[in-house]
Design brief:
Elements (H helix, E strand, L loop, with lengths): L2 H14 L8 E3 L12 H9 L7 H13 L10 E3 L2 E2 L9 H16 L3
Parallel strand pairs: 1-2
Antiparallel strand pairs: 2-3
Protein name: NAD(P)-binding protein
GO molecular function: oxidoreductase activity
Keywords: Oxidoreductase
Length: 113
């Protein structure tokens, strides 16, 4: 997963843990949907490698798993793929980088007319 969204999720975990709110990131995999018909590269991949894609049902399994599993069996703030926690980039845990990102983003919003 991209670093910026994961840092935002990490920030949610820190800010909402006091309220016992759990946050999980999910990668559904590459799911077979009509979305790819508008992108030449993706559409070509889908046509030639359909076996590599998941059905919508298969793509939703991790989300359903996280919704139904007991919280004590899950890791708050982690990134899940195929119902398992997967490793993430160490920059996600870097508080200084996360703070810089938040400040940079705030400044971008201040520039919007």
């Amino acid at each position: 997963m991209k670093i910026i969204p994961r840092q935002v999720f990490k920030n949610f975990v820190i800010n909402f843990s006091l309220y016992e709110i759990k946050v999980y990131s999910v990668h559904p995999g590459v799911v077979r949907t009509p979305l790819y018909k508008y992108d030449f590269f993706s559409n070509t991949f889908v046509k030639f490698f359909p076996i590599a894609l998941k059905s919508p049902k298969e793509g939703s399994l991790t989300t359903v798993y996280l919704a139904l599993e007991k919280c004590e069996n899950l890791s708050n703030g982690e990134y899940y793929f195929d119902c398992e926690v997967v490793p993430h980039n160490p920059l996600i845990d870097n508080k200084e980088v996360r703070s810089q990102l938040i400040e940079y983003t705030k400044n971008l919003f201040l520039k919007i007319p």
